[in-house]
Amino acid sequence: MTLNRKRTRLSASHYLGRKTCFVTICCDHRRPYMAESRTAQSVEQLLVECAANRSFLLHAYCLMPDHAHVLAQGTDVNSDLLEFIRLFKQHSAFAFRTDTAKQLWEAGFYDYILRPSDRVDDIAAYIWWNPVRKAICQEPKDFPFSGSQTIEWIARSYLGTAWSPPWQEEPEAKERV
What we know:
The structure is a single chain. By secondary structure, the protein is of the alpha+beta class. The chain has five helices and five strands, in the order E-H-E-E-H-E-H-H-E-H. It is 32% helix and 16% strand. Strands 4-1-3-2-5 form a five-stranded antiparallel β-sheet, with helices on both faces. Mean pLDDT is 87; it is low at 171-177.
């Protein structure tokens, strides 16, 4: 029996260029593989390397125990988010599988292409406050696997944000839009 999966991705052209995208990648079966510092450090290093190699800047990222949040912006008209994420997942999964013989990531990922009305700082704050919301630490600066290449986020006083991903909105809120 084959399952017909709903295509949730936009056409590839939507992911090209100098766009900014918020991506969430879940660990296989939401297992907390990145709770181990060595794994999280390896994944973080590969994220930074793959972003640079594929012409992306990381406005914000946070490697939670069972998922990763990334806010990345293409720096070139040829920047390809789908290729960047594919390579990042492939390289990090290979390194993890070599060490553990386990699968690191779920097959897909969630994405949100920022609209002109979206503020990068709001979405970055949402990402950095994730470990606080999950009671892993008291303040975003206390979590070791978060960062940015463009925002001096530890030096800034983020009070949190009211922003939340559109897929987490209340159903009645979506109907009002």
